[in-house]
Amino acid sequence: MTLDSENPRTDGKALFPLYTVTFIGTLGFGIILTFLVFLVMDYGGNALIYGLLGSTYPAFQLIGAPILGRWSDLYGRKKILLLSQIGTLIAWVIFLIALFLPVITLKKVESDLLGVFAITLPLLALFFARALDGVTGGNVSVANAYLADLTAEEDRNKNYGRMSVASNLGYVCGPALAGVLGATVYGELIPVSAALLISVIGTLIIIFFLPESHNCTIEEYPETKSISKILGQEHKECYQVEGGKKITFSEVFKLEYIPFMMVLYFLVFLGFNIYYTAFPVFAVTALEWSPAELGIYFSVLSALMAFVQGPVLAKLTTLYAESVLIVAGGFILGLQFILIVPGNIVLLYLAAVCFAFGNGIMWPCVLSMLSKFAGKTYQGSVQGFAMSASSLASIIGLLAGGVLYTQLKAMTFLVAAAIIYIVVFLSLRLIKIEKTRQKQKFN
Fold it and tell me: 209 FRET partner, CA 20 to 30 A, in 24, 50, 143, 171?
């Protein structure tokens, strides 16, 4: 018998390992996020170098994500997730080695536009680690495609919300754990070692607990004598691939609504990454925050977002269309960038609430609508190209964030706000698209 691809299995046991891997991935990054800006400054960098280091990951992900997305369509999600996780594991090993390298200056730069910074040996090692992690970093697009394999359309926004909750819980626990582990005399050594250990655990979970997603047919009388197969308990999920036909970049852009969603993807990540570069530098230089204070802020923000993407999103999706939530969420998200500018502590935490609520209801709905537009045939490929769009935006945004902050300081956040409000304006079209698709579905 063939598994019904129109009614994908939504077994919580199948999705739980995926949520766990997502949590572990962000937990490791959340640990490093708290003190990475301090490491860059200690090793001779400035806002531009911090942005450049951040952009290294998406730059190499731009190369790797489409390939890994395509491979996941052909060879199965689990194999590619494992490959990606192993790349992350090796990258953390290199990151750890960088902490033991002598701070030897290789090049010093003094510029009115770029600021003053030095290129040192540990910084080069960090750049290499982020590059390796990036080129094997198709895990997000593959995980999104994997979830789409296992989830019916009407449940996707809920399950993408749950995956976002798992992701944000990692950001809640990561900075908090970094604050505790980094308070010892060993400094960053223990937090980086913890991130490495967490990556090992993630690799083991993929190997032993994550079921494969296959283009498959279950035989009525299995040839193998495995008791799990005989009893019909072996977990095998199916999705469609058109005879292994390779889909190109131009073919992806011929799919209905996909080009529009790619533009939204690009702009959202552009605005986010200007913020992601500027805010940590703003916190360290203008606000004079310590790693603990920065960690607390990120933990609070992520905890709020996890709450929003859990019970709040589940309730809102029963009342409002996904397109409406994207527009409303984007509007609220833009407010948070504006509230950061004065540097007032009360407004900063109000900004965190806006970030959590705005992004928390907007982003899972964007992911859900993209997966619906992609359909089943090219799910992995479309997710891979979407990741490429986000990677390109991240490269530009992280670099622009460093340059803009060097020149504009806190006013940089107004640029991010303007970009997000462009997304809000463009997203109004999604309301019409969603209504049209609903009519087509019932006709």
Answer: 171
